[in-house]
Automatic annotation (TrEMBL):
<feature type="domain" description="Gfo/Idh/MocA-like oxidoreductase C-terminal">
    <location>
        <begin position="133"/>
        <end position="330"/>
    </location>
</feature>
<dbReference type="Pfam" id="PF02894">
    <property type="entry name" value="GFO_IDH_MocA_C"/>
</dbReference>
<dbReference type="InterPro" id="IPR000683">
    <property type="entry name" value="Gfo/Idh/MocA-like_OxRdtase_N"/>
</dbReference>
<dbReference type="InterPro" id="IPR004104">
    <property type="entry name" value="Gfo/Idh/MocA-like_OxRdtase_C"/>
</dbReference>
<dbReference type="InterPro" id="IPR036291">
    <property type="entry name" value="NAD(P)-bd_dom_sf"/>
</dbReference>
<feature type="domain" description="Gfo/Idh/MocA-like oxidoreductase N-terminal">
    <location>
        <begin position="2"/>
        <end position="121"/>
    </location>
</feature>
<dbReference type="InterPro" id="IPR051450">
    <property type="entry name" value="Gfo/Idh/MocA_Oxidoreductases"/>
</dbReference>
<dbReference type="GO" id="GO:0000166">
    <property type="term" value="F:nucleotide binding"/>
</dbReference>
<dbReference type="Pfam" id="PF01408">
    <property type="entry name" value="GFO_IDH_MocA"/>
</dbReference>
<protein>
    <recommendedName>
        <fullName>Gfo/Idh/MocA family oxidoreductase</fullName>
    </recommendedName>
</protein>
Length: 331
């Protein structure tokens, strides 16, 4: 039984608690910590944990084998480094942190202590996203591809998401899932070019715009993203890809599934169905994988600190390009 501690008991921690409840045969939450003592107390009651703390350093002394770091991004570094130095395995939510220097520190301390550092890129465990990757990699529409992805709405509720130092806005926070998934599917990025602005002047992070990421493979990712729309407003969730052999279109989730269309000469509009990512199965598989790696004594996970660092490098290059108006090379 892997003994788990949760640090940060807000929004995403709630989802992880649901998953851990389903995995109770192999993992037990024994301690929780949150600077907000009420949130820690509520999480303790919900999980039947033995301890709740205000300070993560106390949690690290409570007998946990591993922690889930679910605080706002800016705080990940100190918590992950303290956990590694205490010999605890770490699942760290994405983005890994806010700077390459800090990411390097987290990776180096985890390696030194021989503990796991898994970063929360849940799409790598999700059937719908894995189907997209399988179709692209099988050459269903040829290569290289141009992948368009649109996501627009208002920001997540906690104000730190739109603080440029603590959360970084959508092109650091939400879109980091896309950079990682593109790396996973296309390989390493070569160059980025972005045009990002602030629709909402009352917040420090850039909130709306476009970014184009070119990969060494020649594949191109085009993101159009906003967390600056008025409450209740949103764009479509366009997710389509063009290749020399045709187009691949993923629709919106319908109940428990998502439909996709392969519009190629060979397939002639063939449709398929895959289990929708909205079912959150990816989160269950992600947590299960982390626990298995812990139980195996620190097996290298499928998503590492280095993956977190590389996705952050793309995010920071995109912000740099937005600020300078010039393409940024990632060589
Ligand atoms: N994988 C995903 O799809 C996904 C979705 C949402 C958020 N996230 C990531 O998860 C992290 C947390 O996001 P959230 O939405 O849960 O935020 P949140 O604001 O809802 O919760 C964060 C919690 O951390 C607590 N906290 C702050 N500083 C702390 C500290 N030093 N020690 C202990 N607790 C502390 C806060 O009191 C709060 O309860 C972020 O890195 C975010 O980007 C990932």
């Amino acid at each position: 039984m892997v003994k788990i501690g949760i640090v940060g008991c807000g929004g995403i921690a709630g989802l992880h608690m649901d998953m851990l409840a389903k995995l109770k045969d192999k993992a037990e939450v024994i301690a929780v910590a949150d600077v907000d003592e009420k949130k820690a107390a509520d999480a303790k009651a919900r999980m039947g944990a033995k301890y709740s703390f205000k300070d993560h350093r106390e949690l690290l002394k409570s007998g946990v084998d591993a922690i889930l770091c679910c605080t706002p991004t800016f705080f990940h570094t100190d918590i992950v480094v303290d956990a590694a130095r205490a010999g605890k395995h770490v699942f760290c939510e994405k983005p890994i942190c806010m700077s390459i220097e800090n990411a390097d520190k987290m990776i180096a301390e985890s390696k030194k202590a021989k503990v796991i550092l898994q970063v929360g890129f849940v799409r790598r465990f999700d059937d719908e996203w894995l189907k997209y990757r399988e179709l692209i990699q099988s050459g269903a529409i040829g290569r290289p591809v141009y992948w368009r992805h649109v996501a627009g709405g208002s920001a997540p509720p906690a104000p730190w998401f739109m603080d440029e130092k603590i959360g970084g806005g959508p092109f650091v926070d939400g879109a980091v899932h896309s950079y990682d998934f593109a790396r996973f599917t296309f390989g390493e990025a070569k160059e980025v070019c972005a045009n990002i602005t602030k629709f909402r002047k009352d917040r420090t992070a850039l909130d709306s715009g476009v970014a184009v990421i070119t990969f060494r493979s020649g594949d191109v990712q085009m993101l159009s993203w906003s967390w600056g729309l008025p409450d209740g407003c949103g764009t479509s969730g366009l997710h389509d890809t063009m290749g020399p052999g045709g187009a691949l279109i993923f629709g919106a989730p319908e109940g428990d599934h998502t439909e996709f269309i392969i519009s190629s000469e060979k397939e002639k509009g063939k449709t398929g169905r895959v289990k929708s990512s909205s079912l959150m199965d990816g989160f269950l598989k992600q947590t299960d994988h982390f626990i298995d790696c812990c139980a195996a004594g620190g097996k290298t996970p499928a998503v590492t600190g280095e993956d977190g660092r590389e996705a952050l490098r793309i995010a920071l290059a995109i912000l740099q390009s937005a600020k300078t108006g010039k393409p940024v090379s990632l060589k």
